[in-house]
Design brief:
The chain is α+β, with helices and mostly antiparallel strands. It is built from 13 helices and 25 strands. A five-stranded mixed β-sheet has the order 7-6-10-8-9. A five-stranded mixed β-sheet has the order 12-11-15-13-14. A five-stranded mixed β-sheet has the order 17-16-20-18-19, with no helix packed on it. Strand 6 and strand 7 form a beta hairpin. The protein is elongated, with a radius of gyration of 46 Å.
Length: 509
């Protein structure tokens, strides 16, 4: 019983105990090998930076398919009587692994799990109740060659759980193929990989683990086409031989969306030598016949909603990011908006409220429908939730929003009558000052009248609003005397002359 208890305790602490063994030769060899492996690991991490390429003993032991690899370093520890025995086992290119003095195993083609089972079985057979432990200390790091259509031919470092796609991620050129990647093993066996199938469908047979001595050859893509619009998976795809519009839509693009108009498929084809492009229009018939595509073709699937009627909004508007605008406008002051039949102006305006700004004269907007002008108060629609305009939007209506005028008019008995820029929070005297002040010969007592844009008379203490008109009254006596004095003088002269004539006539009699 004491022997069994002692063995259990020894098993629990064997990992810590083996590192403290007094065998100086074993410690020196272990430290040397581990230091070299760590240097290789640090070099690999510095080179690629990707977590998928960084060797990890924990990940290796948690992966059921981690393959035994030349360069792996393992630790074997078990109890012999009351003594702890530990060994550092390394795997060379022969894959012959010596298990203490008990056996030599062939690790070629085995996974770590399979090797572990064999090693522990041998030790247990020779030393029952020995509490054998076998684990990975440092996974192997090895070299592979990448060549072909990549940024440069390069010798890269990898480990046994590095997949070919992980290594190529940062080495592609704009012309690299993901469909035709060839891996040649150290023994000369070739395998073609289709990384598209691996990434799209999870087919890891097409994204295998790399092995020491592998040579990766990336081919140049021969045909790549782009598809967008009403398609489930927009993107740039590389077509294999014999694949055309049907495969692009159904296999690569994932099929049409529910809004797709399969009768209106556009293909833009480029001719680099001629420096021109041509637009082709395909239908369902072309789709069924699998219309052939060429390299660099751009396919666009139109939407049924593109056929909806449009209304134009122009004037004092701004282009908002959430405006339902499907047509390029000539400038930012005119846009076209699609609408469903039966849409009211109340709904359309509230949906596109971000079109309007402080420059928009909402109260004086109107709809231009042919030769008819229909006034519309947009401010009520936007700010009165109980207000609804029954007017229905019709195709090609033009909703015009005037610019609000930010000026104040100054007229009458001032030195420089005119229109002056509106400045908030300024009183009437500010604008009179802009107009050169009162005319001393025309106005006395600062007599003025103030009328806002709606025709309401304001008092001097009321705030001045845009389009207000300030009129300085001409109430000076000298002003009126200057106007009427010539008339009075003329009249008096005429009267005086008449009297003189009459008097002279009496004298003659």
């Amino acid at each position: 019983m004491k022997r069994i208890i002692l063995q259990i305790v020894l098993v629990a602490f064997c990992v810590a105990a083996f590192s403290q063994t007094n065998s100086q030769t074993r410690i020196a060899r272990s430290q040397s090998t581990t230091a070299q492996s760590q240097t290789n690991m640090d070099s690999l991490q510095d080179e690629v930076g990707s977590a998928a390429l960084r060797p990890s003993a924990q990940i290796a032991m948690s992966s059921i398919d981690y393959p035994v690899t030349a360069g792996d370093i393992y630790t074997l520890a078990f109890a012999v009587g009351t003594n702890i025995v530990s060994y550092v086992l390394s795997v060379d290119t022969t894959y012959k692994i010596r298990v203490a003095n008990l056996a030599v195993l062939d690790g070629a083609g085995l996974t770590f799990v399979q090797l572990k089972k064999q090693v522990e079985g041998i030790v247990t057979k020779n030393y029952p109740m020995s509490g054998v432990q076998f684990f990975i200390t440092t996974p192997a790091v090895f070299n592979v060659i990448v060549q072909g259509e990549v940024l440069q031919t390069k010798v890269c470092q990898a480990w046994a759980l590095t997949r070919v796609g992980d290594l190529l991620e940062n080495l592609y050129t704009p012309y690299s193929s993901e469909r035709f990647v060839e891996i040649t093993s150290a023994s000369g066996v070739k395998k073609n990989c289709d990384l598209f199938k691996a990434l799209r469908f999870g087919d890891m047979e097409n994204n295998p683990y790399l092995r020491p001595g592998d040579v990766i050859s990336v081919k140049k893509a021969e045909r790549r086409v782009e598809i967008s619009g009403e398609i489930e998976r927009e993107g740039l795809y590389e077509l294999a031989e014999g694949e055309n519009i049907k495969e692009l839509v159904e296999y690569y693009g994932g099929g049409f969306t529910s809004f797709a108009d399969s009768m209106r498929i556009e293909v833009t084809r480029y001719f680099p030598k001629q420096r021109e492009s041509k637009r082709l229009y395909l239908t369902e018939t072309n789709l069924e016949e699998n219309y052939p595509l060429e390299d660099s073709d751009v396919v666009y699937v139109n939407s049924y909603s593109d056929l909806n009627p449009v209304v134009f909004i122009e004037g004092a508007i701004q282009k908002a990011s959430n405006v339902d605008d499907t047509t390029e406008a000539a400038d930012m002051n005119r846009i076209s908006i699609q609408f469903e039949e039966g849409t009211s102006y109340s709904f359309l305006i509230r949906k596109n409220k971000n079109l309007f700004s402080m420059l928009s004269d909402l109260e004086n907007s109107y709809i231009l429908r042919g030769n008819d002008i229909i006034k519309i108060d947009i401010s009520k629609i936007l700010y009165d939730s109980n207000y609804n305009l029954d007017e229905t939007v019709r195709p090609y209506d033009i909703l015009r929003v005037p610019f609000k005028q930010f000026f104040v008019n100054v007229a009458g008995a001032v030195n420089i009558p005119g229109r002056y820029p509106y400045i908030p929070d300024r009183g009437w005297d500010y604008y009179i000052g802009l107009a050169g002040g009162f005319s001393d010969t025309k106005n006395i007592g600062d007599r003025i009248t103030i009328v806002d844009s709606n025709g309401n008379k304001l008092k001097k203490g009321d705030p001045i609003t845009p389009e207000t008109t300030i009129t300085a009254k001409a109430n000076s006596f000298t002003h009126y005397w200057g106007i009427y004095a010539p008339v009075i003088t003329t009249i008096l002269t005429a009267v005086s002359t008449t009297i003189s004539i009459l008097v002279a006539a009496d004298v003659i009699k």
